[in-house]
């Protein structure tokens, strides 16, 4: 078979530890034999980030803006322990944070559903994609512990005019908190959500507590609605999808009873909490993909999990690992499919879909990694090591390609 060609490059961001090992295996076994991979390679491994004073992360984000599509391996976010382990010059920032800020993007997380790994919520038949607004609110708050006295909200405009509102007259000890968001950030969030709904042809749900927070949360609701009416309504109608706003309480109740198959956009805190609930209910972090979508329509695909450090240390000791590569494979297929879509490269899109199918078929046939074997309802399961699982997927892929 002739290898599939790619006219435009894809930005490839390599990473750390066990996922870096999987990355290489995936490329060698599942991609390079079939595709003339055209990638612009950035090594975001911590060693190279440290060597370049993290410039490589900024360069990779700029390349993503240029080419429109990136695929990223999990990377270490340095902490005190890593400073020593890697002899770092500085405690470099989270690459995901840097890239998200550069692209002004929103992260969408979607579970990969296979037969035999059933969600805890039995009526969930299709994936629920969660979008979290990743700016402001309680994550950029100012807090105080106070004694008895008067707490006020004070705003000073650019001309020095003050506006005051009473928060509370304290009779004894208490706590206060100030937080903010910007219309610009909320608009970018809304735009990314509408774009991603169109791109994946799924309904979009959005929920806040606007009945209680009549100015703060209501502004989120209004910005979404205005943008929808002005720019997205017709496009949604053409794709036969809907935008649906409801109160957060009602959304939670409806989500539990739904069969899935939609995108749920949440404010920062709601998204933080709900994404953990949704992902654990679907089974495994190793089966969760993540895509960063910018308001201008740039896409960066990755696995939702980290570098699987514990497995990497076993691997370094020469012990066998059974690390699940599914989310990383789906990061590649997501990116290849999007590249194909943007370039009108049907062969590439078809290959991406086939590789996803091969991955799902492999698990459904009972061949899987240990994390899945522990939670599957399938019987007669074969637990494979990291390498053999990828080889088993290659086998399924060869069968599909031969058909
Ligand atoms: P993690 O890498 O997600 O792994 C936590 C645990 O979850 C693992 O020890 C393993 O459990 C299980 N697990 C996760 N992915 C798995 C997979 N593909 N296959 C099988 N089991 C899997 O989180 P972490 O250990 O807390 O973080 C390690 C490093 O990753 C940190 O340096 C952190 O900064 C980084 N991180 C990066 C990203 C990113 O780049 N997007 C995201 C999160 C964390 P068992 O050990 O029980 O088998
Ligand atoms: Mg959380």
TrEMBL record:
The record marks 139, 209 as: Critical for catalysis. Pfam families: Iso_dh. Binds 1 Mg(2+) or Mn(2+) ion per subunit. Gene3D superfamilies: Isopropylmalate Dehydrogenase. Its EC number is 1.1.1.42. It comes from the Bacteria. GO terms for biological process: isocitrate metabolic process; tricarboxylic acid cycle. Coiled coil: none annotated. Residues 9-393 form the Isopropylmalate dehydrogenase-like domain. Keywords: Magnesium, Manganese, Metal-binding, NADP, Oxidoreductase, Tricarboxylic acid cycle. D-threo-isocitrate binds at residues 77, 94-100, 109, 132. Belongs to the isocitrate and isopropylmalate dehydrogenases family. This is Isocitrate dehydrogenase [NADP]. It comes from Floccifex porci. The lineage of its organism: Bacteria, Bacillati, Bacillota, Erysipelotrichia, Erysipelotrichales.
């Amino acid at each position: 078979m002739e290898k599939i060609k790619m006219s435009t490059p894809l930005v490839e961001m390599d990473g750390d530890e066990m996922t870096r090992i999987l990355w290489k295996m995936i490329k060698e076994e599942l991609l390079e034999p079939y595709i003339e991979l055209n990638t612009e390679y950035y090594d975001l491994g911590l060693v190279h980030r440290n060597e370049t004073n993290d410039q490589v992360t900024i360069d990779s984000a700029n390349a993503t803006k240029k080419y429109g599509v990136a695929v990223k391996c999990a990377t270490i976010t340095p902490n005190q322990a890593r400073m020593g382990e890697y002899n770092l010059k500085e405690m470099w920032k989270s690459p995901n944070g840097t890239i998200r800020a550069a692209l002004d993007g929103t992260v969408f997380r979607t579970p990969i559903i296979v037969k035999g790994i059933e969600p805890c919520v039995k009526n969930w038949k299709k994936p629920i994609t969660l979008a979290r607004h990743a700016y402001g609110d309680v994550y950029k708050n100012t807090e105080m512990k106070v004694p008895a006295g008067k707490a006020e909200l004070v705003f000073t405009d650019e001309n020095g005019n003050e506006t005051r509102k009473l928060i509370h007259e304290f009779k004894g000890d208490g706590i206060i908190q100030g937080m903010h968001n910007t219309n610009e950030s909320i608009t970018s969030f809304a735009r990314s959500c509408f774009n991603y709904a169109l791109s994946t042809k799924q309904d979009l749900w959005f929920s806040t507590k606007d009945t209680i927070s009549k100015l703060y949360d209501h502004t989120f609701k209004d910005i979404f609605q205005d943008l929808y009416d002005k720019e997205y309504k017709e496009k949604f109608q053409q794709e036969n999808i809907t935008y649906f706003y409801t109160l957060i309480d009602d959304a939670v109740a409806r989500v539990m009873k739904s069969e899935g198959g939609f995108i749920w956009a949440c404010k920062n805190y709601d998204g933080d909490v709900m994404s953990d609930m949704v992902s654990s209910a679907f089974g495994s972090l190793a089966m969760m993909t993540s895509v960063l979508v910018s308001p201008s329509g740039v896409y960066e695909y990755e696995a939702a999990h980290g570098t699987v450090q514990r497995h990497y240390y076993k691997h370094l000791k020469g012990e066998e690992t059974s690390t699940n590569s599914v989310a990383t494979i789906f990061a590649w297929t997501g990116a290849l499919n999007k590249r194909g879509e943007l370039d009108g490269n049907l062969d590439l899109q078809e290959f991406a879909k086939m590789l996803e199918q091969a991955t799902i078929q492999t698990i459904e046939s009972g061949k899987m990694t240990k994390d899945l074997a522990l939670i599957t309802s399938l019987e007669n399961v074969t637990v494979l090591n990291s390498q053999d699982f990828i080889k088993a997927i290659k086998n399924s892929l060869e069968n599909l390609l031969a058909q």
